[in-house]
Inverse folding.
């Protein structure tokens, strides 16, 4: 029985690295596969992301700002590679929505592709779990598919993404506070006659 909650977890820094490489190009949708290990954690399914695999140029058949087509051989090779390993049983597709700054909304095409893929994994790769994630410029959305049942649970990436956005704001605030404080400090120095 699959869980209604799923959490996708990254080792420290891994998500930042992934995001940096995928968002380097905002002109075209970018794609990567994470190999993960699914663990039953009571009420929730936890998927630990282990390795990231980037398609090479020749694995991408077509791409635009809002779509991407990956060569089937890349997908089959990656799935096969995973079944040879003991420490990975979850295939997590990550793609970008470079056109979107904030909220991630999976498109109808995303949903159709994923449903089809979940049927395919259920049939051809039983035992493999499948999740998908989409990254906008600042946020993420994720789904954990119940392969063979044509449904998914919402998934959350345990993430630095939200923090990164907060860091940005905090940084700006800090700079503002610093400059104000240094202004005050300078005035104090002047008032005390310590300047010269
Ligand atoms: Zn999408």
């Amino acid at each position: 029985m699959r869980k209604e909650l799923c959490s996708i977890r990254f080792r420290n820094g891994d998500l930042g690295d992934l995001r940096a490489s995928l968002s380097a190009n905002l002109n075209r949708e970018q794609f990567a596969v994470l190999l993960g290990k699914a663990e039953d954690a009571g009420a929730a399914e936890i998927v630990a992301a282990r390795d990231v695999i980037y398609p090479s140029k020749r694995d991408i058949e077509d791409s635009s700002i809002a779509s991407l087509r990956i060569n089937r051989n890349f997908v089959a090779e990656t799935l096969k590679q995973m079944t040879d390993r003991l420490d990975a049983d979850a295939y997590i597709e990550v793609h970008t929505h470079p056109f979107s700054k904030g909220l991630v909304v999976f498109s109808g095409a995303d949903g159709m592709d994923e449903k089809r893929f979940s049927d395919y994994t259920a049939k051809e790769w039983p035992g493999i779990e499948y999740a998908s994630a989409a990254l906008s410029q600042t946020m993420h959305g994720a789904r954990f598919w119940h392969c063979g049942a044509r449904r998914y649970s919402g998934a959350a990436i345990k993430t630095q993404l939200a923090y990164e956005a907060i860091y940005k704001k905090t940084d700006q605030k800090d700079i503002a506070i610093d400059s104000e404080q240094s202004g005050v400090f300078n005035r104090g120095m002047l008032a005390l006659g310590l300047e010269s």
Remarks:
- The mean pLDDT is 81.
- The chain has two domains: 5-159, 161-196.
